[in-house]
Amino acid sequence: xxxxxxxxxxxxxxxxxxxxxxxxxxxxxxxxxxxxxxxxxxxxxxxxxxxxxxxxxxxxxxxxxxxxxxxxxxxxxxxxxxxxxxxxxxxxxxxxxxxxxxxxxxxxxxxxxxxxxxxxxxxxxxxxxxxxxxxxxxxxxxxxxxxxxxxxxxxxxxxxxxxxxxxxxxxxxxxxxxxxxxxxxxxxxxxxxxxxxxxxxxxxxxxxxxxxxxxxxxxxxxxxxxxxxxxxxxxxxxxxxxxxxxxxxx
Length: 250
What we know:
The chain is of the alpha/beta class. It has one domain (about 5-120, about 165-250): Rossmann fold, CATH 3.40.50. It has helices at about 15-20, 25-30, 55-75, 85-100, 130-140, 150-160, 165-175, 205-215, 230-235, 235-250; strands spanning about 5-10, 35, 80-85, 105-110, 195-200, 220-225. A 6-stranded parallel β-sheet has the order 2-1-3-4-5-6, sandwiched between helices.
């Protein structure tokens, strides 16, 4: 039986799991039983159970970690590997590693896993247009000219999703500053093996964020992917699949 792998998507406006992992899911499925749920606040989970009253990145990360435990239980999985993308999926993966280390085997964290400084402004929603969405997506790859068709197609799709009822309210609450909330995850207490992946040409999060994270993790290591931007799996899909497969199967 293939080992289970939970793919946790990133946190950009209008994102969902299917579009986030389209470039690599079929390749990963050759080695793993892949589960790719829409995380709370996105896709099919913009509103509803588990989202009420959540404010601040830590509260959302903890709620998503609990969501993934429910997903594992629903599929009868006692243990799974996890790949967490950026400030949504990566932060949820970190919270999950702290909350239930016995349920997780190995973890791959991308783009700093939300451990860097918060953005100066909430992305996209101050100017919710297709042009703004296209610009937001363009920053995620190393070279927009290589992915022009993909970015143009995604801009329209993700604009529609980002403007669904409740989407803006949920997204803004993810960036809300909260004085009293869940404590941040202490990476020095994570016991699972973790691979931190970071794109050499990441324009969203500097490499130093993943360097600090990998150094703090007791069983962490860092791999900087040459020529890749924040979307490593889009810029370098074959290398991404290879790195993930080699690490999770080690």
